[in-house]
Design a protein that fits this description.
180 residues, 3-stranded antiparallel sheet, 3 strands, elongated
Length: 180
């Protein structure tokens, strides 16, 4: 019986790396989204019970981008001091949402090109098939969108999402606590 563990394949390494980054980015995005929901609720409701009710019935069903737009409108209208202090961080919300959607909905590319890039350049590729309206023949109907993530890009995205998360925590401390 051989006690040595088998060396993982490139596909297994890509899969493990993709799972790790997906988990980190989606978790950070969920926290950001929940804090935006809570801030929106606090702008319209005075009690925790009403905030929760508003989140569950009105805010939670909205798309993340819609929540971000409403959140930014409210910050711009009611919290200019905070906006001015954190404008660059708050502007990163769109980027966090974009990449969260890629990690949540796009497939990891396991093609030979992607495997080669992973080994040689330490990058991950995510792909999404799109319908082409310009396709002249059936085989060209679908073409991939591709997003490539290097370690440097991943670390920058993680930092961006953590900074935004911390910024929103500070914002929630600044706003008045609702009554019970």
């Amino acid at each position: 019986m051989n006690n040595q563990s088998a060396k993982p394949t490139v596909e297994q390494l890509i899969n493990g790396s993709a799972k790790d980054i997906r988990g980190i980015m989606i978790e950070n995005a969920v926290e950001i989204e929940r804090m935006m929901e809570y801030y929106i609720g606090k702008c319209f409701c005075r009690t925790e019970e009403k905030i929760t009710e508003m989140i569950m019935l009105i805010i939670a069903p909205m798309q993340f981008t819609q929540k971000k737009e409403l959140f930014m409108f409210l910050i711009t209208s009611h919290n200019k001091k905070f906006l001015n202090k954190h404008k660059s961080i708050l502007s990163s919300a769109g980027s966090v949402i974009k990449h969260r959607n890629i990690f949540a909905h796009w497939s990891v590319d396991y093609s030979s090109i992607a495997e080669d890039d992973f080994v040689k350049k330490q990058v991950l590729h995510f792909v999404k098939l799109k319908r082409s309206d310009k396709a002249k023949i059936r085989k060209d109907l679908l073409y991939p969108d591709k997003e490539t993530y290097s370690e440097k890009k991943i670390n920058a995205l993680i930092k961006e999402s953590v900074d935004l998360n911390n910024c929103l925590r500070e914002l929630l401390k600044w706003t008045n606590a609702p009554s019970k």
